[in-house]
Amino acid sequence: MQFVEYMKGQTARHQAMEPVDVMKLCYQAAFGAEHLLEDREAAYQYLLREYDRMQPEPSEPLHESISEDVCRVNLRAWKYRKLPVKWLFQMFAATAAQPIQGGITVFRNCLQETAKLADTGAFHFSRKDWEEFLKDYPTENPVAVHHSEAYRQAERPAYRLVCARFLRIIPVLEAVCAAEANAGASGRCIVAVDGRCASGKSTLAELLAMVTGAGVVHMDDFFLPSELRTEARLKEPGGNVHYERFRTEVLPALNCSEDFSYRRFDCSRMELGEERKVTGKGILVVEGAYSCHPKLGNYMTLRVFSDVESKEQLRRIGVRDGEEALEAFKQRWIPMEENYFTAFGIRDKADIVL
């Protein structure tokens, strides 16, 4: 989607936008979070104070995209959903720490698109008003600006800028909150992320860990060793995972409050390698194909299925692993996964499909 479409969405929703508010949008779309977090704790305390003043708002959208890379997450909507404010801060801080690539080029394109939109009457101000504003703005060395007073009064902006990649995990975050509220103090929330290869399972788990502090167990660490790779085992739906070792090394530790560890399987040497340590507190994510295998039981609180279209799946594998590996995926690994998904209805049984 081009920036002009995002701008149209903003002008339709926020009709009080003045030239300076449009400039703020252009700046954020190009450069992301406009203030680096020099004092992380101070920024968090500021958010807490602002959040405490907010009234929950059910009609406000949780997020508003302003570019392919960035969105605004609205505090009132976040509070209405009873999501932890610390999670929002983690996303905001991670966004501020990673500037958008090619920002100045994006910024100039945004200015050009804004001028064209002004010609169409998309704003309540004219192209001339926009050009007058630009005379006093350092377009060659862009700086962050504040919302206009008119915009503040009419729109009551209260948001944090967040990288768009975090949007994918929001349904999971909401489900985790609901599950924890229902469970109370009776148990740990465990999220199993199954799904097709190259669908983003590992990235999903990484983002969940970044935002919530969750521990992560990787199913790739339970690759089937050579001595168990019999013809009969590999014909078994989901037989391509060492579920016996998972049951021994991971399952007993899941509902304990102590840290635990397991040994990862090193595919380059086809033997067990170093230990991975996993926190025994808070949320736990088990990510990877076969994480919802019936032989592992119903250990999870939530089942997530990470999906991807076949054409996009093959493109990603080719980019990630190369053409030679792609053929192996097409001929062997993908058919084995699909057999497992079909045999056990893995996608249909998921609480969330992404």
Total strands: 10
Give the radius of gyration: 24 Å
Mean pLDDT: 93
Largest sheet: 5 strands, parallel
Secondary-structure element sequence? HHHEEHHHHHEHEHEHHEEEEHHE
The residue fraction in helices comes out at: 40-55%
Which regions are unreliable across 5 or more consecutive residues at pLDDT < 50? none
Q: How are strands sequenced across the largest beta sheet?
A: 5-8-4-9-10
Strand content: 5-15%
Q: What distance lies between the first and last C-alpha atoms, to the nearest angstrom?
A: 20 Å
Molecular shape: elongated
The class by helix and strand makeup works out as alpha/beta
Number of helices: 14
Note down, in words, how this protein is organized.
By secondary structure, this protein is of the alpha/beta class. 45% of the residues lie in helices and 14% in strands. It has 14 helices and ten strands. The chain has helices at 3-13, 19-31, 40-53, 75-80, 85-96, 103-119, 127-135, 149-155, 170-183, 201-212, 231-235, 243-249, 310-321, 323-344, and strands at 63-65, 70-74, 159-163, 190-195, 215-218, 260-266, 271-278, 284-287, 302-306, 352-353. The radius of gyration is 24 Å and the shape is elongated. The protein starts with a helix and ends with a strand.
List the helices and strands and how they pair.
Layout (H helix, E strand, L loop, with lengths): L2 H11 L5 H13 L8 H14 L9 E3 L4 E5 H6 L4 H12 L6 H17 L7 H9 L13 H7 L3 E5 L6 H14 L6 E6 L5 H12 L2 E4 L12 H5 L7 H7 L10 E7 L4 E8 L5 E4 L14 E5 L3 H12 L1 H22 L7 E2 L1
Parallel strand pairs: 4-8, 4-9, 5-8, 9-10
Antiparallel strand pairs: 1-2, 2-3, 6-7
Helix pairs in contact: 1-6, 2-6, 3-5, 13-14
